[in-house]
Design a protein that fits this description.
Distance between the termini: 5 Å
Number of strands: 2
Helix content: 55-70%
Low-confidence stretches: 1-8, 314-320
Structural class: mainly alpha
Mean pLDDT: 89
Oligomer: single chain
Length: 320
């Protein structure tokens, strides 16, 4: 005689954790990459290379030879959005096929997938508003939100599925949150600086009307505050023996200093396009490093397996 055992549902093509991690990392890289290529569109004066949206012209969805290099650059960036979306879709499918199923990963994967077309719609509005600098800034910030969601997904895959447990004292968690808020504020003000500067994306695009020197000084002051808070985190984390958090804070300080150097050099050299593009990449790295610090203040513990219930004494065996 033998007992009938429950069979765990399975899928025909299960996805390994290693593959899921690689796909999630590819999603982060792709979303950072499209920020950089979007910057290239603006820096090459190709923002209106396709003068309408969702079509490239009133008659065509693709760039034509008459539109020249600017049309090709703008249309190429639009095509990259589909590539980034395909990667996000692959991540969602991988999350659904992964075993054991991690239910907490599904909302993050969905957020990344739907965040990409939402960001593309904002990009379309920038074209339809003739590169309004406030909408252009919103387009950049929308990309930052998608990157943040992609990073959160990648970190949750690496973490156990258990509950989060604080690994540093509450005052230091508050300091880390404050640092994250200031980092976000620096990104927002950075879009205002860009909107007041010379790289409008097209010769006829309007500027936001802010005084470039004044808003650049406000941005620099925010950067100084951010670096100060980050240095404070390094020493505070070390003082309580939170080595992992301290390492993350050191990386954040290093990224901030590198980004600050690029920012000062580009300001005093009249904003050369190559340095402006590097500064946009640096903004993405600052965001990721800030999120890493925030993540390091907590840890997740594995969930203890639930023991199999003992068979009831009155259970009736089933004959083979």
């Amino acid at each position: 005689m033998r007992r009938i055992c429950a069979v765990t549902p399975s899928v025909r093509f299960p996805v390994s954790t290693a593959l899921l991690r690689r796909l999630a990392l590819a999603s982060i890289i792709a979303n950072v990459g499209i920020v950089v290529t979007g910057g290239a569109v603006r820096l090459t004066e190709s923002g209106l290379g396709c003068p309408t949206w969702p079509r490239c012209t009133d008659e065509s969805y693709v760039a034509t030879a008459e539109m020249g290099i600017n049309g090709a650059i703008e249309f190429g960036n639009r095509l990259l959005t589909f590539a980034v979306g395909v990667i996000a879709l692959a991540v969602l499918v991988a999350v659904l096929l992964h075993r054991p199923r991690r239910r907490e990963l599904v909302p993050l994967a969905v957020a990344v997938l739907f965040g990409i077309p939402a960001q593309a719609i904002v990009g379309g509005i920038t074209v339809l508003t003739d590169l309004n600098p406030w909408v252009v800034g919103l387009h950049f910030l929308a990309s930052m939100l998608v990157i943040a969601a992609a990073y959160a997904l990648w970190r949750r895959i690496n973490d156990p599925a258990g509950p989060a447990v604080a690994v540093v004292p509450a005052p230091l968690r508050t300091l880390a949150v404050l640092t994250t808020v200031v980092s976000a504020a620096v990104l927002v003000v950075g879009t205002w600086v860009t909107g007041s500067g010379p790289h409008a994306g097209d010769h006829g695009a309007a500027r936001n009307g802010l005084d470039p020197e004044t808003i650049a000084q406000v941005h620099a002051d925010g950067v100084f505050l951010l670096i100060g808070l980050s240095v404070a985190l390094v020493f505070a984390f070390r003082a309580v023996g939170a080595d992992r958090a301290a390492r993350a804070a050191v990386v954040l300080v290093a990224v901030e200093l590198g980004q600050g150097v690029i920012g000062f050099v580009q300001y005093f050299t009249n904003l050369p396009a190559l340095l402006v593009g590097a500064h946009m990449l640096g903004s993405c790295l600052v965001l990721l490093a800030t999120l890493s610090v925030q993540w390091s203040t907590r840890a997740r513990r594995p969930v203890a397996p639930t023991p199999d219930p003992a068979p009831a004494e009155d259970a009736v065996p089933v004959a083979a």
